[in-house]
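Weekly structure sync, notes
Attendees: PL (lead), two postdocs, one rotation student
Agenda item 3: pending single-chain targets
PL asked that the sequence for the first pending target be pasted directly into the notes so everyone works from the same version. It is reproduced below exactly as submitted, 211 residues in total.
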Amino acid sequence: ALVGESGAGKSTFVDLIARLRECDSGKIFFDDKPIDEYSLASIRKEVSFVSQDAEILNDTVRNNLLFSTPESTEEEMFKALEQSQAKEFVLSLPNGIDTVLGERGSKLSGGERQRLSMARALLKNASILILDEPTSAIDTKTEKDIQLNINSLRDKKQTTIIVIAHRLSTIQSADQIIVLDKGSLIECGTHAELVKKEAWYGDMVKNQFTR
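Predicted structure, written out during the meeting:
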């Protein structure tokens, strides 16, 4: 998980992983191999991204899901919808999975757009899943259900999951929490370790959990 104030460098960090930006110093390695030894196409193929402002096409739910994985089956699509807690609302749409969603998904709420974007990312089954505030517009119960499914995906140990979060309740189970400030790493550890340190992360936990 990546945390820090706005402008700390969290989005830059994930942009570097997907090679949306290039390093001007230092090196990034995937499995001990420098990032520039991989083709751009191979990196993009293995990175899936869910942003806070979910991009939804003016097309059907089905075609939104199939955008990057056109070979996916109906069963795979509904499994991804279930994992992202989107299945129920998709089935309630006038034409179900074949409902046209309007410009930028105007027929959906913010939370529904985020869940559909999450389903599309999960369907891709990429090696690296980047989640940028993926539950900011979602109620607490749905967020917890999604978190359980994300943890289940993590437990299979086939996907590296990177979460950018301001809501610290979403990242307590992360293997490593990295705290950034003005482009520098200032803390790193598990939730329990960082709380004990009583530095930036510990102060944020106190602020968020004692309101």
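Discussion points:
- The chain has a mean pLDDT of 88.
- Residues 3 and 50 are 16 Å apart (CA to CA).
Action: rotation student to compare against the earlier draft before next sync.
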